[in-house]
Amino acid sequence: MSLAPADYGLVVSELGRDPTPAEEALFENLWSEHCAYRSSQPLLSAFDSDDDSQSVVVGPGDDAAVVALTDSTYITMGIESHNHPSYVDPYDGAATGVGGIVRDTLSMGAYPIALTDSLYFGSFEDEHSRYLFEGVVEGIADYGNSIGVPTIGGSVDFHPDYEGNPLVNVACVGLLSSERLVTAEAQTAGNALVLIGNTTGRDGLGGASFASEDLSEDAETEDRPAVQVGDPYTEKLLIEANETLIDEELVEAARDLGAAGLGGASTEMVAKGGLGARIELEKVHQREPNMNALEILLAESQERMCYEVAPENIERVRAVAERYQLGCSVIGELTESGSNYVCTFDGSVVVDVPAEYLADGAPMNDLESVQPELEDQSDLPDRALETAFESVLASPNTASKRWVYRQYDHEVGTRTALRPGDDAAVMAIYECETGLAIAAGSNPLWTSAAPYDGARAVALETATNLAAKGAQPLAAVDCLNGGNPETPEVYGGFKAIVDGLAHACSDLSVPVVGGNVSLYNDSASGPIPPTPTLAMVGTKDGYDAPPCGFTGVETNADTEAGTILVVGDRALAGDRAKLGGSEYLAQFEGSDAFPSPLDSEDVPAFVDTLTAVANAASTLAVHDVSHGGLAVTLAEMVTDTGADVTLSCEGTKASAAELLFHEQVGRVVIETTDPDAVRTAFDGVTPVHEVGQTDGTGELTLSVNGETLRYDKSTIRDIRSRIDRELD
């Protein structure tokens, strides 16, 4: 890519001259969609990043957000996409996505304690999609396992519209004490800029601009030089070195070298502080000969950090870098407010521009949007109940993801209290005796069927995942993925998911404290579905949480029955069961309207009540109902403890398929020894239906409108093991 003529004209007008080649390249990258959010920033004001409890310490705009758990214990939250690189080189593209979000965490003074990855691929039946899937998972596993940060959750979805453009969205949570907080805001003129970490090479050149254009059919070969190559062992050394630098109070400000490399990190740091800088590019430690100024500025070589260091601390910083066998270069210094961002190379000035104009001067796009048309006609397929049940259960979208998460070390660090495979993971924050629940994901079937309501459903489902483990939702970050925003229909769908997510998080009183936008996710196959990945955290007292599987009541003699309740199901209460956006329709085709999520005023009471019920001593198990509907939820809950369940609707003629497979969110299945207490708790909030009892059979007996299905746990496991079976 090159700087667009209109942008070039603006730069010439600002500078009063033509830009140098290095300046033009910097503007091209820092004014790209990937860095400047030119098409999305006008929409992002819909999000509320503050909260009534004043727990948000650092909101959007830094490398990661910071949220207070107590006055002295903070967490960081960040999320990023590595979509285009993961198509070109799935292993390195995904691995460096992990590395980048971890360094965003380090730059705030935090230690990374948990990762989630939300992954989206083309059809599972497609050979190339499987190649990308396997490569991405391997890259995430190798990098995360090597640096010792547990991958504790996420999601995997398959949809034909990701065929030419998969999505890899990675979130990271870090932990720090309040006195360790560092930001990317440059502090004091006269302080040094110090580059620590890996050597700088030519890998990743132009990565920011590459991420801001549609993928071509030849992207896997033509764009490979734009993909960074990761080194997790250097990253692990950088993690520990960063800890030492923070412990010894040697850092005034910090920034990860990600998009646009050194040019991006240093410019943004200087601009945030309202200062200038003078950088000598030849002082950057390099691994390739004869690198020019532009290459040194824009290379996105991994495992590098830029620090602001007081002059009296430079030698101590050098010593720390040497102790951890990391490169260290004093590359320049901060200059007074009002001075320019200046880079020299071998004595010649190659960049001399106002830092704020470079970092924040990109003009915003005023794009046309067309609201998506929603399906309102019902044309439902008619399939035998047994066929439908087994097909939905075996779909790669609803099947077990054990093949994925068993490759991740999810227990390193000894904080993982509830492991992957449940509605949410729970991390033990021993410092304040708090359980931190984490859930992340999206659903492209929902947001394709109804972008606005689908995004609202994603937010409510994520909050329900936390509440089902007894955690009160606290804060969220999002990764907003869309196609080419210059296409009105695509931009309309993207705008709808932004508004839907923002409105739902407002209903939940969950501040969206940071995020990432990835547009131009188009290929020869067309645009991706509008995809709002949401990563949300919640807190609870202690680290215990009800499991998602049936347990029964253990006694000395036998396993007694627990009562099975379905909470929040409007279809069982007599409303029409809408199948729009469901896995059932994806399997068998057809059309229907998307089921609307809860009304805004009903959301807080539902989540608060569920949180309290999940923490009750009489609650044996809780599982969110979403992907695949009640059919998948009940099947997933069968363990050595089985269940005898009967479903019937009150006053309607909903089919068995509609009752089993609709995906209205805001529902849970609860196993309890005190059903009356659950009914009382939810009275006036949402309907509660008693549908059966657990038993010691290890079988699911499911009667729906007079039809009966019966499956034991082994058969269910075999049906749901499709990914393991076809990839091992």
Blueprint of the fold:
Blueprint: H1 5-15, H2 21-30, H3 33-36, E1 56-58, E2 65-68, E3 73-81, H4 83-88, H5 90-106, E4 111-121, H6 127-147, E5 151-158, E6 167-177, E7 192-197, H7 207-210, H8 219-222, H9 232-247, E8 253-256, H10 261-273, E9 276-280, H11 293-298, E10 304-309, H12 314-323, E11 327-335, E12 341-345, E13 348-353, H13 355-360, H14 385-394, H15 402-405, E14 416-418, E15 425-429, E16 434-441, H16 444-449, H17 451-467, E17 472-481, H18 488-507, E18 512-518, E19 522-523, E20 526-527, E21 531-541, E22 553-554, E23 559-560, E24 563-567, H19 583-588, H20 603-614, E25 619-625, H21 629-637, E26 642-647, H22 656-661, E27 667-672, H23 675-682, E28 688-695, E29 699-704, E30 707-712, H24 713-720, H25 722-727
Parallel strand pairs: 4-5, 9-12, 17-18, 26-29
Antiparallel strand pairs: 1-2, 2-3, 3-6, 4-6, 7-10, 7-11, 8-10, 9-11, 12-13, 14-15, 15-16, 16-21, 17-21, 19-20, 22-23, 24-27, 24-28, 25-27, 26-28, 29-30
Helix pairs in contact: 5-6, 5-9, 6-9, 9-12, 17-18, 17-20
Describe this structure in words.
- With 728 residues, this protein is α+β, with helices and mostly antiparallel strands.
- Helix 5 runs parallel beside helix 6, helix 6 (127-147) packs parallel to helix 9 and helix 17 runs parallel beside helix 18.
- The two termini are 41 Å apart.
- The model has no long low-confidence stretch (mean pLDDT 93).
